[in-house]
Amino acid sequence: MTAVRQRPSWSTVVPLASFALLAAIWGSHPKGLAAAAIALFLVGAVLAAVHHAEVVAHRVGEPFGSLLLAVAVTVIEVALIVTLMISGGEDTSTLARDTVFAAVMISVNGIVGLCLLVSSLKHHLAVFNPEGTGAALSTVITLAGVCLVLPRFTTSSSGPEFAPGQLAFAASASLALYALFVFTQTIRHRDFFMPVTSGRGPIDEDGDGHADPPSDRQALISLGLLMLALVSVVGLAKIESYAIEDGVAALGFPHAFVGVVIAVLVLAPESIAATRAAAQEKVQTSLNLALGSAMASIGLTIPAIAVASIWLDGPLHLGLEPMQIVLLFMTAIVSILTVVPGRAKPLQGGVHLVLLAAFIVLSIQP
Fold first, then answer.
1. DSSP letter assigned to residue 63
2. Are 84 and 245 in contact (CB under 8 A)?
3. Is residue 140 domain-resident?
4. Which of 12, 99, 283, 293 could share a disulfide with 128, CB 3.0–4.6 Å?
5. Interatomic CA distance for residues 312 and 317, integer angstroms
């Protein structure tokens, strides 16, 4: 009997095809239909990258899985920011700030709100560990305050930016705080970040709904494809940088909306993974993903951009606008009130989603 040959899956084909496309068109600046086609490959590469990160994460287990996914997403985010800043378009001085702030708002309000809403509607209450979630939230708030709010009020520079010494401090403090959180999450108090059961049955500790973790061989293959997909994302983002900015301008949106586009592109697969976990009553895994992404967006992106700014021309404006500071303050207060009880009703999810909607509307029409 002839063995049936298994066709390669989309998650294998897309990274290979995206990398081949990148090699073929490197150095060009396509427009129109060509740019739209390349954008599809870019989105596919992002989806494939997060898929393979999830496979590897499934192998190493929770909370290491959430940490790996957050870092993979941040690598993509940094690559998109730097490539767009290198492209030399207008107003790139605020691109890092706008993208990081958008990632925080989408993660803390969008992903968290959607997950709480889905889980509480399906299981009556969304149950999670307030100790672990509170530690993650306090880290996010501190990072956002130091890196995004303080530059608006410093006086060493004329604009909403840090002086070189201040930027070095903010970058070092961000890395130190992120490293301390990772130590807390994965070693010292790992149990605070494990899925919580509400008493209606066991929780799947694998973290993504699959019955069995992948083999070592499968995990290594996914790790290689993850690296290939990340390289493809970096290269295709560089090629698409002009098209992204032209598209935002054609819609009549402020240039700051480019940051929202980048954050949405990067966090869409993460949102799907977190919502799926919430539907399976693994809200803690969802919150690990959401807050971990927000934390990595600041704690890893700002240091990377600080180093890149040595070679980039122009200022690096990190200070938020007054309206953005108000939204961040409201988000912090609402998030604290959500986390303290350790369980949430649909109302809490709705409140977070309204804050996200306010952010989107005011980004389009400040």
1. T
2. yes
3. yes
4. 283
5. 13
Span 255-275, pLDDT tens digits = 778 778 878 877 777 788 788
Take residue 261 and report the two structure tokens written for it: 């586009």
Rounded CA gap, 151 and 142, in Å? Answer: 14
Question: Which of these, 249, 272, 259, 290, lies nearest to 63 by C-alpha position?
Answer: 290
Exposure string of 269-286, with b = 16+ CB inside 10 Å and e = fewer, is bbbebbbbbbbbbbbbbb
Domain that holds residue 198: 10-364
Is 2 contained in some domain?
Answer: no
Domain count, the chain: 1
Q: What is the pLDDT of residue 88?
A: 58
CA neighbours within 13 Å on the CB side: how many for 193?
27
User: Which pTM was predicted?
Assistant: 0.82
Q: Is residue 1 part of a domain?
A: no
Question: Does a cis peptide bond (omega within 30 degrees of 0) precede residue 214?
Answer: no
Please report whether residue 310 resides in a domain: yes
Contact (Cβ atoms closer than 8 angstroms) between residue 246 and residue 68: no
In DSSP terms, 127 is beta-bridged to 343
| CATH number assigned to the domain comprising residue 224 | 1.20.1420.30
Helix or strand holding residue 222 (H, E): helix 216-250
